[in-house]
Amino acid sequence: MAEPSLNGAVARPRRRNAASTRRKLLIAARQEFARNGLAGARVDAIAAQAGVNKQLLYHYFGDKDAIYVAVLEWIYDEIKQYEQNLNFNGLKPDRLMKKIVGSWFDYLSLHPDFVAIMDDESRNQAVHIRGLQQLPAIGPLLLRIFSLTLAQGAREGVFRRGVNPTQLCISIGALSYFYFSGLPTLQAIFNRNLSTEPALRERRRHVVDFVMRALRP
Amino acid sequence: MAEPSLNGAVARPRRRNAASTRRKLLIAARQEFARNGLAGARVDAIAAQAGVNKQLLYHYFGDKDAIYVAVLEWIYDEIKQYEQNLNFNGLKPDRLMKKIVGSWFDYLSLHPDFVAIMDDESRNQAVHIRGLQQLPAIGPLLLRIFSLTLAQGAREGVFRRGVNPTQLCISIGALSYFYFSGLPTLQAIFNRNLSTEPALRERRRHVVDFVMRALRP
Amino acid sequence: MAEPSLNGAVARPRRRNAASTRRKLLIAARQEFARNGLAGARVDAIAAQAGVNKQLLYHYFGDKDAIYVAVLEWIYDEIKQYEQNLNFNGLKPDRLMKKIVGSWFDYLSLHPDFVAIMDDESRNQAVHIRGLQQLPAIGPLLLRIFSLTLAQGAREGVFRRGVNPTQLCISIGALSYFYFSGLPTLQAIFNRNLSTEPALRERRRHVVDFVMRALRP
Amino acid sequence: MAEPSLNGAVARPRRRNAASTRRKLLIAARQEFARNGLAGARVDAIAAQAGVNKQLLYHYFGDKDAIYVAVLEWIYDEIKQYEQNLNFNGLKPDRLMKKIVGSWFDYLSLHPDFVAIMDDESRNQAVHIRGLQQLPAIGPLLLRIFSLTLAQGAREGVFRRGVNPTQLCISIGALSYFYFSGLPTLQAIFNRNLSTEPALRERRRHVVDFVMRALRP
DNA sequence: AATGAATGAGTTTTCATTCAT
DNA sequence: TATGAATGAAAACTCATTCAT
Asked: What is the pLDDT of residue D106?
């Protein structure tokens, strides 16, 4: 988990440190929201976990909803940062596609709280996500990447033509996301631990393979 | 929505109101749980929606958790019934696979409350689903079906060998489930209405096609 | 204080008595609102004073505002009843005017909580009073009474002509209301106890006299 | 609004900001107390409105009550100043009485916050006013003025004898004060805007006239 | 079987006030 | 002088559940 953004952080550590308190609250909130959802999360629990007075949460964020949105923003910043650290330059279409699929799997694997919070957002009709400033840019960006890669791959003969980039994008997300989101249920149904290292490797391999085969000409 | 099963109804005949009240409560509960999840659901809302006294809910089911489990059981009965009505007999492996994939999509498309409740179960670590009697049979059943179909298809040369049935099963579920589960978020990201009739048809075609291509030899 | 209206009261006393609980809550609320105003009143205090669980207040009335409105309605019913018990029939204009002025003084003298609550309403821009159904009828009714009486008195030569009934009505209210409303401040300023029996008699006499003299031809 | 007095300001010169901050706080407090009463006023709102740090309020005044008392003192100083600016010298009793009645009306008309704060004081049993140093002088001063004027008027034959100066004083206050204090309620009852310029003129004329007629021999 | 009354333990939020710099 | 951080106590309101009839 990357550090939450530190609006106005001071350099040297102090006993009374606004930035640090804010950060502690955000970290605690992220955990609490991931575990219990927006409605299920307890403001008291967040404050207690952060080790600060409950009122400070209201002081810094306004109300429960507002700190929830702050967590969402933090998460989206984190994703952006994650993507910027991936180096996709100069990759051929098939290598690039593999890397995207794999990196999505890896991200979700490493960030169960992201999955949990997204699930909750969906149940709430994505009302909070819709308010994020970063949001409108994401869809077009994804579509551009997949369109270009698919087209390039088609020219090079590694991908078939006629793949709908939106559907592909959703499918790639689905294959990884559903695995983590539905983990408890899947484990109950298949009576298997699906979160062991080998199980994760197996799933990752399957997902990448599944997508690449589906894209063959 | 099929009639809720009346598990726990007493054997000897009473005034038929008892069964009717129980059913009304279950219907209302299913709606409420789908909309708000287990934690978010309100016992008052269920009773009000059912048009009966709140205490009757406790009389018939014991507590909130118990009626939730009753709803889960009802849903699983419904699925079983849905599957039994599908006629898979005599289908060739590729036709069969297509039919399975399509029918899963259709089921989820028609039962948004199932999706909602499953999502909620996952967040709660599937604790309630784990208690269902029907559950242990489902995984093995699914695996048997997919194993047989894959093997048969491989023999006939329409499917490649080496496909993991568990992974395939999860992937087929993922491609449809995630679409409905993440609908609000996806619509926000792609700034598109994904629940129109044409959009649903497009997604269904894509999913079936995606799976079948990924299984090609 | 008259009994609050007993929507649905049952005849014989019971341990669990909705009407009685409702009544107890209203009585306690009236006291608390009179003492502390709407904002200053404590829901806990009302429930404690009524000797019932706090939740019942929400059960019966909805929220703090709603019980406040219920108190207002009760008060207005009480006033209506008070007026209906006064017998103005067949009185000559000057006797009638004296009786009105005196009865207003008496009512305010006997209902300090009415004064307190009206004061609070004024500070809140009369927002709750404006919602009362009984309200629109009051103004016109008062004006009709004063207009008729003034006209009749003028014809009989006991009142001068040209008195504005609205202004007179406000003035009559003012002379009594202000005395009770401003009692603590007036007592502080004049360093006198103005609520003794003799002081009240003196004020009453003064008010009636003051009005009658001001109306002389 | 006149400048607030700076009671408690230190003698030796400091940065002029101190006085300015104190003044800004008082102005903001007066507004806030008038709008919301002592209990309803928010320390945060006062500080924010004054544009200074909340702690400064505590620094300069001690606590919420103390700044409230400071506002009361300011208001009383203002009234004293207002009266001193009126020139009553050499007026005949009836002219003088008219001028007093009119000037009271005018003062209340121009100082709605005075009315609001006095109302609040009354609800609080005038506890804070009682502590004011200026207070003990006011009652006797008023009584002296009215006694002298009434006596002089009686001698000159323009006023009747036997008018109780205390009662008269209260009545004159009532006729104007109640109009402004009860404005929202009166407007609701009579369904009329009573704060327009013509309405105010009409009321002023009525009040002066009413008093003078009541005092005729 | 059915109903409405009643409750206690929580949950978010507010607010005056004090602390540390 | 000035500031922002921090706090504890309390307030309105919610909710699953039990009691009495």
From this structure: 98
Residue A15, classed as helix, strand or coil, is coil
Please check whether residue A100 is in contact with residue A150, taking contact to mean a CB–CB distance below 8 angstroms: no
Contact of chains B and A by CB distance (3 or more pairs under 8 angstroms): yes
Amino acid at A100: I
Residue B159 CB-density burial (10 A; 0-12 exposed, 13-18 middle, 19+ buried)? buried
Rounded to an integer, what is the distance from CA D158 to the centroid of its chain? Answer: 29
| Extents of the domains making up chain D | 1-71, 86-215
For A86-215, CATH number out of 1.10.1660.10, 1.10.760.10, 1.10.357.10, 1.10.10.10 equals 1.10.357.10
Eight-state DSSP code of residue C11: S
The reported pLDDT for the residue numbered C76 is 94
Residue C4 and residue C26 in contact, taking contact as beta carbons nearer than 8 Å: yes
A210 touches strand E (CB under 7 A): no
Per CATH, the homologous superfamily of domain B1-71 is Homeodomain-like (1.10.10.60)
Can you read off the two tokens belonging to residue A87?
Answer: 């180096």
Q: Tell me how close the Cα of C7 comes to any Cα of chain D, in angstroms.
A: 27
DSSP C51: T
Specify the 3-state DSSP secondary structure of D132.
coil
Give C116-142 pLDDT, tens digit per residue. Answer: 999 999 999 999 999 999 899 999 999
| B172-206 residue pLDDT tens | 999 999 999 999 999 999 999 999 999 999 999 99
Buried b (16+ CB within 10 A) or exposed e, D122-149: bbbebebbbebeebeebbeebbebbbeb
Asked whether C19 and C8 are in contact (CB, 8 A), the reply is: yes
Using CA atoms, how far apart are residues A30 and A18, in angstroms rounded to an integer? Answer: 18
- Residue D28 beta carbon within 7 A of nucleic strand E: no
Looking at residue B17, what is its pLDDT? 73
Q: Which tens digits make up the pLDDT trace of A43-77?
A: 999 999 999 999 999 999 999 999 999 999 999 99
Does the structure show a pLDDT above 60 at D1?
no
Q: Which residues contact D45 (CB under 8 A, 6 or more apart)?
A: D28, D32
CATH 1.10.10.60 fits A16-71, yes or no: yes
The count of CB pairs under 8 A between chains A and B is 146
Q: Is the separation of the CB atoms in D192 and C169 below 8 Å?
A: no
Instruction: Tell me if domain D1-71 and domain D86-215 are identical in fold.
Output: no
Per-residue model confidence as pLDDT tens digits over C70-120: 999 999 999 999 999 998 889 999 999 999 999 999 999 999 999 999 999
Chain A residue with minimum CA distance to B192 = A139
Among C5, C170, C33, C49, which Cα is nearest to C113's? C33
Residue A3, pLDDT > 60, answer: no
* CATH 1.10.357.10 is the classification of domain B86-214: yes
Task: Classify domain C1-8+15-72 at the CATH topology level.
Answer: Arc Repressor Mutant, subunit A (1.10.10)
Q: Which two tokens stand for residue A43?
A: 């403001």
> Which pLDDT tens digit goes with each residue over D71-126?
999 999 999 999 889 888 899 999 999 999 999 999 999 999 999 999 999 999 99
- Which residues of chain B, if any, have pLDDT below 50? 8-16
Q: Report the alpha-carbon distance of residue D96 to residue D79 in Å, rounded.
A: 18
Cβ of C46 less than 7 A from strand E: no
Which chains share 3+ C-beta pairs under 8 angstroms with C? Answer: D
Residue D146 has pLDDT above 60, yes or no: yes
DSSP-assigned letters across all residues of B105-120: HHHHHH-HHHHHHHHH
Helix and strand tally (H, E) in chain A?
A: 10, 0
What angle in degrees, to the nearest 10, is found between the helix axes of A183-190 and B135-156?
Answer: 80
Closest residue, chain C, to D203 (C-alpha) = C167
Indicate the length of chain A as a whole number: 217
Contact B45, B67 (CB under 8 A): no
